[in-house]
Amino acid sequence: MNPTDDPSLSAEGSDGPAEDRPGEEDVAAIIKRLVDGEPFCVLCTQGQGWPYGSLVAYAISDDLATAVFTTPRDTRKFRNLLECEHVALLIDNRSQFPDELMKIEAATATGRAVLIDGTEDFERWADLLVQRHPYLAAAVRSPSHGLFRVDIASYFHVCRLQEVRHWSPGGLA
Hints:
It is a single chain. The protein is an alpha+beta fold and 173 residues long. The chain has one domain: Electron Transport, Fmn-binding Protein, Chain A (Pnp Oxidase, Chain A). 20% of the residues lie in helices and 37% in strands. It has four helices and seven strands; from the N terminus they run αβββαββααββ. It has helices at 27-37, 76-83, 122-132, 137-140, and strands at 40-47, 50-60, 66-72, 86-92, 105-115, 145-159, 163-167. A six-stranded antiparallel β-barrel has the order 1-2-3-6-5-4. A hairpin with a 5-residue loop joins β2 and β3. It is globular and about 45 Å long. The protein starts with 26 loop residues before the first helix and ends in a 6-residue tail after the last strand. 29% of the residues are buried.
């Protein structure tokens, strides 16, 4: 996704590289740590003009540019994904810090979801998901499920409830 596809994204929306902010961990490294520690996320879709949130087991590529998940075809989530490809994935660590609000972090990945059934990339993405979630091996290849790839355009990382940083895979920011 090109940043111009989302009018809220611009070069001004990025805080720049970590080396410009002494003592701060690189945003990509923070997001990678958060993603690696949280096997589930909230998938945000929309259908018939209404927002919808769903929990999904997911995996993300090492470069943080692509996410993958599977879902049964006979669900609102699946129908919403076919109706509107624009999605967000919310990944957070709130369960790790129930009594320490200022330690909670969240990353919202925005992008486009694409059904990849029957494509040459299917095995690559199915393997990535099953590597992280072995119990999904049968579901991923079942005709009753669809495998979706999310091409991530941008991340918004929030910590201490109000500190927001923007980062885009591939330097799109």
